[in-house]
Amino acid sequence: MRAAKILDALKIETRDFPDLKPEGDEVVVRVEAAAICGSDLHALYEKPGEKKQIPGHEGAGVVVAVDKARTVKPGDRVATTAFHSCGACDMCRAGYTAYCRAMKGVYGFSRDGVHAQFVRMHESSLLPLPESIAFDEGCLILDPIGTPYHALKRTAANATHTVGVFGLGPMGLGSTLVAAHLGAKVIGVDIIAYRRELARKLGAWRVVNPADGDVVKQIRELTQGHGLDRALECSGKAEPLHAALDLCRPFGHVAIIGENEKAVIRPSDHFNRKEIFLSGSCCFPLGEYGEILRLFANGLRAKELITHRFTIEQAAEAYQVFAGGDTGKVIFVRG
Fold first, then answer.
1. Does residue 335 carry a pLDDT above 90?
2. In contact, 303 and 33? CB cutoff 8 Å
3. What is the third-level CATH fold of 143-280?
């Protein structure tokens, strides 16, 4: 089979790999669509050194071969998750497989992922994909749709709220799409004009360019001084998180989606005197999968997140385009 291979920082090519066979409760899935994630870019493609595993953890496809699997069969349409969890710990039983206490592997990082023609995955790592959802939409469920939905649900965001989305990469664009779909008034913030314009098309009420001046001041002017009811920090940078906390109204909620090792906050101003909530989100629990599918049934315009499509033979070009920043979601489709 053919799959992407990261050879060094900013160096990737498509290579031949051995054909896959099912084994026990691990099945072979033909990958119909797979997306490039920011974590693929920053944690793998941009880091020096050859990567052992095939990248990619956002996929959708068809089961083509099984051995002793009990929950899937050949022909089943599936969306992939990133985790091969133990299935027995308290986190797994609650559906929070991302926090499994005995994680067996993460596809695309410690195990071969979905930037390939085929992938072998544990049957418990697959979710049933309805016929009504196309494969290119299905590969968006794990991260740019599911994670923002979970974050917004935790904030109890609704149509009465003004929601700020800081950072309009794939996660921020997904957040914009889902929040607007839920009826919220969305203000998107990003330095890249392409992504600001795409956010508008996805339903943003207004967009803000940090290069035009103080973001806090700009958003206060847009909201007649009231600020934000909810905010999603998707950039992974300290300054936008600080701005989100500054702008959040009393009893509001800021959700952190972007990965960030450190940031400065002002506890007295941000929490004591406003009583706002702060939460994090990296994936949705399995119990919310049905709710996410209903977003699609109710008209979620997920396809509009996709701006570029490539075959796996074009892996080098796909990663280069995505790294350039003038994209929404970049995906691989079966050629």
1. no
2. no
3. Rossmann fold (3.40.50)
**Mean pLDDT for all residues in the chain:** 97
DSSP 3-state assignment of 80? strand
Domain spans of the chain, in order of start: 2-139+301-333, 143-280
Q: Half-sphere exposure (CA, 13 Å, Cβ side) for 239? A: 8
Q: Give the chain's largest Cα–Cα span.
A: 62
Do residues 82 and 136 lie in contact, with contact meaning Cβ atoms separated by under 8 Å? no
Structure tokens, 114: 């979905």
pLDDT at 279 over 90: yes
What average pLDDT does this structure show over 264-271? Answer: 90
Instruction: Report the CATH number of the 2-139+301-333 domain.
Output: 3.90.180.10
Cα distance between residue 89 and residue 105, in whole Å: 15
Write down the H helix ranges in the chain. 38-40, 90-93, 135-138, 146-155, 170-181, 193-201, 215-222, 238-247, 267, 289-297, 315-324
Alpha-carbon 4 to chain mean position: 20
| Backbone dihedral region for residue 91 (phi beyond 0: left; psi -120 to 50: alpha; all else: beta) | alpha
Instruction: Please report, for residues 45, 109, 197, 316, 335, the alpha-carbon distance to residue 322 in angstroms, rounded to integers and kept in the order given.
Output: 11, 19, 17, 10, 19
User: Is residue 262 scored above 90 in pLDDT?
Assistant: no
